Amino acid sequence: MAQRAARATDYKGKSWLATPAFTVVFLLLSFRAYSGEPTVPSAHMSTCTIYLVRHAEKQQVPGDKNPPLTEQGRRRALALAKQLAGAGIVELHATQYQRTELTLQPLATELGLPIQRYDAASATDLIQRLLARPCPGPVIVAGHSNTLPELLRATGIDEPAAEFDESRYGELFTVSRRRDGGVWQATLRITRFGD
After folding, report:
1. What's the pTM value of the predicted model, to 2 decimals?
2. Which of 122, 157, 180, 132 is nearest to 51 (CA)?
3. Which pLDDT band holds residue 20 (cuts at 50, 70, 90)?
4. 148 and 89 in a common domain
5. Cα–chain center distance at 133
6. CB 155 within 8 A of CB 65
7. What CATH number is given to the structural domain containing 72?
8. 107: closest CA among 129, 135, 139, 131?
9. Which of 19, 76, 148, 181 lies at a 20 to 30 A Cα distance from 163?
């Protein structure tokens, strides 16, 4: 029994034949195109930037596990704010220790944004939460010499160090994550601030 073709008209008024087989193939292809991952606006999928920074210089106060910044540390925090004021940062994250919050405070003031706290002992959990959602825009995370290597690894950067040297200040780690095919690729750029 021969399939009967139906005559259809497109939006320009041109006529074409639509067989049942063509209709089934068209519907299957359409369904497949829409049954994949949920659609996320392309602005959220192309690139996601995460800035990572160690807190600025802290005061050396015997027995104090939560010291404030030194004068040099405050100057460095101001330099960070100046350097990133135009970067489009939409979120700031600091640990429960005041040295990380004080490092980001000038930038938070400049941008009119709150600083969100996270637990230093669960630093990778923060990165996992940030990467599990559509990227809202660039974010900055302030950490410590013993958490920065794990933060870098959590973003997809191959960082072999277990801990950074205590004298290492003024480095800004810019991690750009870009979707290539269906896989996120991470690249790292390190710049300095406040020197």
Report:
1. 0.76
2. 157
3. low
4. yes
5. 9
6. no
7. 3.40.50.1240
8. 139
9. 76
